[in-house]
Write a structure and sequence with these properties.
Number of helices: 13
Helix content: 25-40%
Radius of gyration: 21 Å
Bound molecules: zinc ion
Largest sheet: 6 strands, mixed
């Protein structure tokens, strides 16, 4: 059963429904229960939680099972236990692969031969890679402001690409309509089965006090918390973490609505260097707000300077992330009452996808002067 996150209307699993026909809010798969089983991959160990649909491992590119890395320095500084969930380790270097894998299984189980996605970059790369692996026609609608580095990665997988000049938020809704007409399964940011994929992040974390999540569409936050709730319902963990949604100040529709109360409103002039989370009208905004409100959650927005500083700080820890991932560390610095707490930061994607500065620890040297150059560096 698929259930509307807002009005509770139910839809049978066999129906290709993504949003509610009555209220246009996102749907989600009804809660699953189960046990942790044996197995190597997260998809094996938590297969009970996907019992509504077999996950065909031939379509897998090895997504998930990413490392949790303890940060000694930041933990000492804050008097807490801080871990990084490094999602840049995934096959196309972002967490999106988990959602794409499950949504692709869904598309194939419904008999689709064409898949598509609306993306600022990361999700387009992910869907293109999986589409190529399975041999499906893949259609990618991109924002015209996308960076050249990202187009290069997406193009390598050979999808059909359209750069769309216009409102990225509206493109999401337009694509769902077009998909129905043209027989394309658009597996956008908060597709119910993409959310199911993101549950697996919670399964790999277990029991913690806080989880800090870079938040754009709201899909990742919904997915991670659904995973925690299903684990608690099943007795695998005793308590839920406090969810912390981290947004960029220049585009924070969820934090705005969280503060003001009420529903999500479109941000007029979104502007942040964290392009991967620059969504002016989060399609899962209202559902994400509900998750935050129900779970004692927190919403923190951070400015571009704080994001860049956090990105450099993470590099000092040996992890190079995109600015959109660094919002989690920037948000951590603003939390209160975290002494002695266990905190996981979701690092959503790799820094290699965005334009970067080299820093100033670089100089040029002639081979015959190498001795001298090295001495100067010491
Ligand atoms: Zn509804």
């Amino acid at each position: 059963m698929l259930i509307c996150t807002n009005c509770g209307k139910k839809y049978p699993m066999e129906e290709h429904a993504q949003r509610c026909a009555l209220c246009n809010e996102p749907l989600e798969v009804e809660r699953q229960n189960g046990k942790m089983r044996g197995g190597i991959r997260v998809w094996d160990r938590f297969r009970d939680f996907y019992s509504y649909m077999p996950l065909d491992m031939r379509y897998s590119l090895g997504e998930g099972d990413t490392p949790l890395i303890f940060s000694e320095n930041i933990s000492r500084e804050l008097g807490a236990s801080v871990y990084f969930k490094n999602e840049s380790i995934n096959p196309t270097w972002s967490f999106k692969d988990r959602g794409t894998f499950v949504a692709l299984n869904r598309a194939l189980s419904l008999g689709f031969e064409k898949i598509g996605v609306v993306s600022t970059g990361n999700m387009a790369a992910s869907v293109s890679a999986y589409g190529a692996r399975v041999g499906l026609d893949t259609y990618v609608l991109l924002s015209s402001s996308i960076s050249r580095e990202k187009i290069a990665q997406i193009g390598a997988y050979g999808p059909k690409m359209l750069l769309v000049d216009g409102n990225y938020g509206e493109l999401y809704f337009e694509s769902l309509k077009l998909g129905k007409k043209l027989g394309i399964y658009f597996m956008n940011s908060d597709d119910p089965f993409r959310i199911e994929g993101y549950k697996s992040i919670a399964f790999e974390i277990g029991e913690v006090d806080y989880v800090i999540i870079p938040t754009s569409s709201g899909g990742l936050l919904r997915g991670i918390m659904k995973g925690f709730v299903e684990m608690k319902d099943s007795g695998i963990v005793d308590k839920l973490p406090i969810p912390v949604a981290a947004q960029a100040k220049g585009c924070s529709p969820i934090c705005n609505a969280f503060k003001e109360g009420g529903k999500i409103k479109r941000v007029k002039n979104p502007r942040t260097i964290a392009h991967a989370i620059e969504n002016p009208y989060s399609p899962s905004g209202n559902a994400a707000l509900e998750v935050l409100r129900k779970n004692n959650g927190i919403c923190v927005s951070v400015d571009d300077d704080e994001i860049l500083k956090a990105q450099r700080r993470l590099a000092e820890e040996g992890i190079f992330v995109q600015p959109a991932s660094a919002v989690s560390l920037a948000a951590l610095k603003k939390l209160k009452d975290i002494h002695g707490k266990r905190i996981v930061l979701i690092l959503t994607g790799s820094g290699l996808k965005t334009k970067n500065e080299y820093g100033d620890n670089i100089s040029i040297c002639k081979m015959e002067n190498l001795d001298k150059c090295m001495e100067e560096m010491l």
